[in-house]
Design a protein that fits this description.
With about 80 residues, the chain is an alpha+beta fold. Helix content is about 30%, strand content about 30%.
């Protein structure tokens, strides 16, 4: 799988605060693929967002969508 394919999968996930998908909103950075493991940083637009329950929901969606394709996701939160 390529970084572009990962981004295409992640375009399904919306940030409910801004109403855009997390790729269009430029919230996903540093995507790396090693075997069946994908690591990335989910960049929050504001510091207060990091503790928000919606962020954890987005992370779970990321993991779920990639798991459907046979990949394990590791997501860090960044600013």
């Amino acid at each position: 799988m390529t970084v572009k394919e990962i981004k295409d999968i992640l375009k399904k996930i919306q940030d409910p605060h801004i109403g855009k998908d997390i790729i269009s909103a430029k919230m996903v950075k540093n995507i790396k693929i090693k075997g069946k493991k994908v690591t990335m940083t989910l960049v929050m637009p504001a510091m207060g967002c990091a503790g928000c329950g919606m962020v954890f929901g987005m992370i779970e969606e990321i993991k779920s969508e990639l798991k459907k394709k046979g990949y394990e996701a590791e997501v860090e939160i960044g600013f």
